[in-house]
Specification:
about 30% helix, globular, single chain, about 350 residues, 16 strands, about 25% strand
């Protein structure tokens, strides 16, 4: 089985943006892609090719063939060759359509994606599109699950003096905490997001509670993976993500599962890994966004279970009905792939 694994920041996508791969996005990208590469390389009979930006030092302990990328054209050529592989996994941020473009390249090349395809990415990569889909038809019996609503700017800017409380401003195609800010007034939000850029941003009420994430492996019978609490600290109005830890409280786990089932019932069918960010509140889970791609919680999930996530991904995509993996180790993980037992 020939496998191609591509991650945008470490795998050459930065050439298309005239950027040097660095910073938190690189840390998280490497943490994800190196964990994924190890899992797939450990499968019997798997031959793994890993896209790699030539400006970065590779981890030679990985049992993969590095496909070094030196230019935007080489990145495109590699993904255009995906039809030669049995499996292709694409990991990229939603920023500037980077994820959507690359899964479309693979689809056009006849590659066999084992990650959400363009139908799902086109929804999840746009937070307003996600909201429209997830709010489309009730709560499917979950009772307490809902999406945090955004407010149209023309209505929101009229609220000053009438509504109190904190608001979260974020880009429609954002990833993580990039360009996200929490403000204390309508006036402040409207000053930050000026009329000329409001079509690319949304504003939501700040919802207090425990930040969490949950992921599922897609297929005819999706499987929900162990959910995590997220470590998020707000500093000067901006969220700083520091990793997470496996949830252990049964009620919180149930809320996370309810939120994922709610999303699965509404999203287009997909295979591979998909994540949902949410806030756990006394009134139930509140969905923040859908991540139609790998997330750093993969690192925690793989360390918490005995099964191979690569093997589970294949089996679920092929249509096997298998139970959700059982947590055998409660772990804490950081944004660089470090894992430690929880006390």
């Amino acid at each position: 089985m020939k496998v191609l694994i591509y991650e945008f920041v470490a795998g050459g996508g930065a050439f298309a943006c005239n950027m040097t791969p660095e910073g938190p996005l690189l840390d998280e990208g490497r943490a994800m892609v190196e964990a994924v590469a190890r899992d797939w390389a450990a499968l019997p009979g798997a031959e793994v090719d890993l896209a790699w930006d030539s400006r970065l030092e590779p981890d030679r302990t990985l049992n993969v063939r590095f496909r070094f990328i030196d230019s935007e054209q080489e990145e495109r050529d590699l993904l255009d060759s995906s039809g030669e592989y049995d499996v292709t996994i694409v990991i990229a941020p939603e920023l500037a359509h980077a994820l959507l473009e690359r899964v479309q390249w693979v689809e056009q090349a006849g590659g066999a994606l084992l990650c959400p395809g363009s139908a799902t990415v086109s929804v999840g990569a746009d937070k307003l599109a996600t909201e429209a889909v997830l709010r489309s038809a009730g709560d499917n019996g979950s009772g307490r699950v809902c999406m945090i609503p955004s407010i149209p700017w023309d209505e929101f800017c009229k609220f000053e003096g009438s509504y109190r409380g904190n608001w979260v401003v974020k880009p429609r195609d954002g990833v993580g905490g990039e360009r996200v800010i929490c403000v204390g007034s309508v006036k402040q939000a409207c000053e930050i997001v000026t009329p000329d850029i409001r079509s690319t941003y949304l504003v939501q009420p700040y919802v207090p509670g425990k930040p969490a994430s949950v992921a599922a492996l897609g297929g005819p019978t999706p499987v929900i993976l162990p959910p995590s609490a997220q470590s998020i600290v707000w500093k000067k109005g901006a969220p700083l993500y520091g990793g997470g830890e496996i949830l252990t409280d049964p009620d919180e786990i149930q809320m996370a599962h309810d939120a994922m089932r709610f999303a699965l019932a509404k999203l287009p069918p997909f295979v591979g890994y998909l994540g949902v960010d949410l806030i756990l509140t006394p009134d139930g889970p509140r969905i923040v966004e859908v991540n139609p791609r790998m997330t750093t919680s993969y690192v925690g999930a793989r360390a918490a279970i005995d099964e191979s996530l690569a093997d589970l991904t294949l089996r679920v995509a092929r249509g096997e009905a298998i139970p959700s993996p059982r947590v055998t180790r409660c772990v804490r993980y950081d944004t660089r792939g470090g894992v430690e037992p929880m006390n």
